[in-house]
Design a protein that fits this description.
Layout (H helix, E strand, L loop, with lengths): L8 H10 L1 E4 L5 H15 L11 E3 L1 H4 L12 E5 L6 H7 L2 H11 L4 E9 L9 E4 L1 H4 L3 E2 L4 E6 L10 E3 L11 H4 L3 H6 L5 E3 L6 E5 L4 E3 L10 E8 L3 E2 L13 E4 L8
Antiparallel strand pairs: 1-10, 2-3, 3-4, 4-12, 4-14, 5-11, 6-13, 7-10, 7-12, 8-9, 8-11
Length: 262
């Protein structure tokens, strides 16, 4: 690889063993402020270049049980942002992040699968249960993608930080009926799980088969996190899989592209 190594051998081993690794203070306060301000602009409906199909309200506002009084604080998530917005794309290709991704994927030929910005507002920010990302992205092979989850606000136990189940990236891809019998072990601690609070500007990196979840936001503070999903440019899209998300064209992050691949 031509880039300077960002991670230590110990951190790479930790990722391979546990399915996730945390890197503190990756981004500056200015970089985080720019992403956060752009997220709020998009959530407020003030970015005409980002379509409404890229925003999703929290369930209480989608089903009409609560009226929308503040559009920004009513959002559950924003997604497919970087294909439209230059500020978000600059985050995606930031060398501080991509050098780490290159270390973890062991290649400089990298594409973005997609991105999601989870808003998780106070009081209404909902929990997300145990899941594997590749269970949704099952048309991308190998199932060996890496997500960079950047804390825009401090992520705490009270406002819904991520939890990971170490080693579960070795369990293979499982659909919901296969995961359900294991939830008691995960929730009871018989299979250990690790909460991962993050300071704003720090990033957790996780494998696309690592089981993870997040809690509800029971605090008075926001918990915005920007998840960008990276894959090797040599990955293959299995067109026979018809029940995976329909994604925009995959954008090149770094390195070469390859005919017949993603």
């Amino acid at each position: 690889m031509s880039h300077p190594a960002r991670l230590s051998a110990q951190e790479i081993t930790q990722f391979k063993e546990n399915g996730f690794v945390v890197v503190e203070d990756v981004l500056s306060a200015e970089e985080i402020a720019a992403v956060g301000a752009r997220a709020d602009l998009i959530a407020a409906g003030k970015a005409a270049h980002v379509p409404e199909t890229s925003v999703q309200l929290e369930p209480v506002f989608r089903n009409g049980s609560q009226p929308v009084q503040d559009r920004v604080l009513s959002m559950r998530k924003l997604y497919d942002l970087a294909v439209y917005d230059p500020v978000m794309w600059e985050h995606v290709i930031n060398p501080k992040i991509v050098n780490i991704i290159a270390d973890l994927l062991d290649t400089d030929d990298i594409k973005m699968y997609g991105d999601q910005l989870f808003m998780k507002s106070p009081a209404v920010g909902t929990a997300q249960g145990w899941h594997q990302d590749s269970a949704s992205w099952r048309d991308i092979l190998p199932m060996d993608l890496v997500t960079a989850w950047t804390a825009i606000d401090d992520a705490t136990l009270d406002n819904g930080c991520l939890h990971f189940a170490p080693g579960t990236q070795r369990w293979s891809m499982m659909r919901r009926p296969q995961i359900d019998p294991l939830l008691e072990d995960l929730d009871s601690g018989r299979w250990p799980s690790v909460p991962v609070p993050l300071k704003a500007g720090s990033i957790s990196f996780h494998h696309s088969l690592t089981l993870h979840r997040s809690g509800a936001n029971t605090s008075s503070k926001r918990r915005r996190g920007y998840a960008v999903h990276y894959m090797r440019a040599t990955s293959v899209k299995d067109e026979a899989v018809t029940d995976a998300p329909k994604m925009p064209p995959f954008k090149q992050v770094r390195g070469d592209t390859f005919p017949g691949r993603v």
